[in-house]
Each structure stands twice: as C-alpha cells, then as structure tokens.
Amino acid sequence: MQSILVILSVILASESCCSGWSLWDNSNTHLVVTSILQEPFLMKVKTESAVKLEGNDRYEGYCKDLADLVASALNVTYTIKLVNDSRYGAIDRNSSTGWNGMVHELINGDADVAIAPLTITESRARVLEFTTPFMTTGLGAIIKRMPQSTSGFLMIFAPLSFGVWLSVIAVYLLFAAILYLISTYTTLENLTIFECFWLPIQHMTLQRLEMSPKSKSTRALLTIWWFFIIIVLANYLLSLNQFMTESEHQLTEVDDLLRYSDVEYGVLKYSSSYEFFQRSKKAAEARMWEYMVQNPHVFTETVAEGIERVRESDGKYALFVNSATIEYLNEREPCDTMKVGENLNEEGFGIATRQNSKLASRLNIAVLQLKESGLLFTLRNKWWFDRSQCNSYPEEEGHKHITLSKLSGLYFVILLGLFIVAALYSFEFYLRKKEHEKAIEQEQNNVHKRQGEDVIPLT
C-alpha cells in the first residue's frame, strides 16, 4: 500500500506542476468519511482478541484503500464513520432531509464525504455531487451455483455412479454363476450356460419367463435377484427423472426467472436496485417489480442477508445486486454462487459530497488521476481476484447421483439372501442324498430279493 501511495504522489506532483494548480491546496485538514460495511469494499479487520485496533485501522477493503489514496492526494486526514442506519440512501419522507442512509448524513452535515459502493442515480445526483465513477458496474442476478447437467447420450448413465454400474454387473455375473452351479449339481434343473445368463436378464427387463425353475434354491435365488433389480431400477428411474427436470431448469438469462414459478427473486430494500425496478418501463422488468411488490418477503434488509438466503435456497432464490459484488462473491468460499445472464443496466459507484462543496472538483480530479494511473485497476485486482478462494466449482462434482453408500443396505440384503439360498441348497442336497441312499438301499434289497427267488431248493 505504501508503494502505491508513493507512485500516486509522484504522478499527482508532476501533473500539479504542469497545470499550475495544486491538488493539495485545501483548507479542510480533516474529513469525516461516511461508509457502509460490505465485502470487499469495507470490512472490519479480524484480529486476535488481545489486539485492539483504533480509528481507521479497524477497517480494510477497497474503499479503505481508496480513501487512503484520496486523502494523500488532497493532503488531508480523515476518519471513517459507519452510516448510522446501515443504508445507502433512499428517499424517506420521515427523515428531516427527505433521505436516509449516507445521503442523509451528507445533506445533514454529519459527514463530509461518502466513499462507498454508492450508485450514482438521477435522484441522488439532484441532492449530492458525485465524482466520475471510480468503478463501473451493472445490475445483475446472483443465484446458487448448481451442478452442470450431463446432456446427450451420457445422460442415461448419469443417475448411477460408476461404482453402482460396476456392482450391478458384478451381481449379475455372480447370480448367473450361482444359477449355473445349482443347475449343474441339481437334478431338478436342466439349464444350459446360456439359459443361466439369460434368465436374470428376463427378470431385469420384466419379461415373461420362458422357463420355470423347479428347485427351491433356484427360485429363492431368482427372487433375490428380482428384488435387487427392482430396487435399483426404481432408484435409477427416479434419479433419471430428476436429471431430466434439472437439465430443463437451467437459468442462463435473467428473463428465465419469469419462466419458473418456484424460483423467487428480490432486491435490497430501498437501494438503487430497488429504485431501478420501480422506475423501469421494460415489460420484463415491470413484471419482476410487480412480482416483488406482491411478494414483499423477497426483499432483503442487507446484502449479507440476501446472499445468505441465496446460498440456503438451493437454487430457488436469486438476488439482484451490482455485478461487482457478484464477481467478488463468486470468488469466495464456498464457491457456490454464480451470475445469471448479463447485466440489466450500466451504472457506476462515485464519491459523493454535499452540493456546492469545495471538495467536489478536487475529489473528481483525484479520482480521474487514480483511474488514468491504473491504481484503481490495481485495487480492483487486489480485492477481487488476487485473493480468489475458488480454483474449482461444485459442477465438477456432478449431480447427486446414486452411489454405493446409498445402496449399502440393499447389498446387505443380497448377502443375507445368498446365505438363505446356500441353506436351501444344502437342505435340498441333504434330502437328495438321503433319497439317493434310500434308492440305493431299496435297489440292493430288490437285488437280494431277486437273488433269493432264483435259488433252487434242494430235495
């Protein structure tokens, strides 16, 4: 920051000498600067509890750095004063000045300058003097970032995770192999290896069976397979329907908000965004304003409140706010917000003073010099992009498809069912063995009996 101030001093000094007019020639030595807490424009410095900061050192942010640069240019000192009612400034008939927020404090003489994300509007410009915009922005909509939809042919595979698809194939091969083993060592079944692999597919596609199993273990095995495939199919179809619905519910333009009745949208109450919709003559924006008036719960008291609502709404609430704020929030953890479409308008933030203030022209020249020197661009990068916390976004994780962990109970049932099949097969094997032993014994008895009948008695 000190290096920036040095560069600014050199630039301003050189331009002042050439123009024959000194930017530092100012009778005011100390200014009261009104502002408002909003990331990243002005924030309270987070310190350890034992460390106590005082004065301007309590704050940081874009507007704090901008105030330092402007104060250095004007050769004055200043004190940051947070606006009493936490508002930017809107017409208020109950106020002595007819305004609230920072506009009221400037008109009322409670502050000399407002350095904040204060939008230059026609109504404000009638009662205040603004510098050239130190930041150009626009009104946009921010909404929770939703995972990107899988489209095309791959959508049919998206409802189930790769692990679930592999498990379905593994269970199919396991059941076909067990069916073949049962058929091989059971006299009741006479299935070829092709039939052992085809029979589970008939169950999976809910076709009429071409063969009817006879042994209890085979019937139990196919029943468990049928139960498994029904549960998997039910989850697959429900998830597929959700995928297809979400793919049709993607918001790409601001006008898309009018298409979906389940998506709410609002603005900061009594802000420049509020005034924009109130005065707009465009059909789409007029419909949005009518909707917001009919549903007053969509308005928010602060930007922080609105952003919290956006993040908790799971894509069902959008907030209209300046695009500079949207760009900042999109680069902050948990990296779950996104901008919808393009800006609705073009607007700017300016430093404001009272009308006919001697500071107005000097402030305007200071902002112009900061802009031409590239220092405003440097500040923008410092607080927006150099501190970005987002290297990846939620869409890389994909949709909430069915995973192995969600079907863990089903696999436990399958394992239990295989134990039952094994028990039934063991019981059938035991019965067949007993029947076989009994048949052998009966055959031996018959042989002995025939041999006895064939003996000729001696006379």
UniProtKB/TrEMBL annotation:
It comes from Dinothrombium tinctorium. The keyword Amino-acid biosynthesis does not apply. Coiled coil: none annotated. The keyword Transport applies. The chain crosses the membrane at residues 153-182, 220-238, 409-431. This is Glutamate receptor-like protein. Residues 30-386 form the Ionotropic glutamate receptor C-terminal domain. Residues 1-20 form the signal peptide. Belongs to the glutamate-gated ion channel (TC 1.A.10.1) family. Keywords: Glycoprotein, Ion channel, Ion transport, Ligand-gated ion channel, Membrane, Receptor, Signal, Transmembrane, Transmembrane helix, Transport. One of its GO terms (molecular function) is ligand-gated monoatomic ion channel activity. GO terms for cellular component: membrane. Residues 40-108 form the Ionotropic glutamate receptor L-glutamate and glycine-binding domain. It is a multi-pass membrane protein. SUPFAM superfamilies: Periplasmic binding protein-like II. It is found in: Membrane.
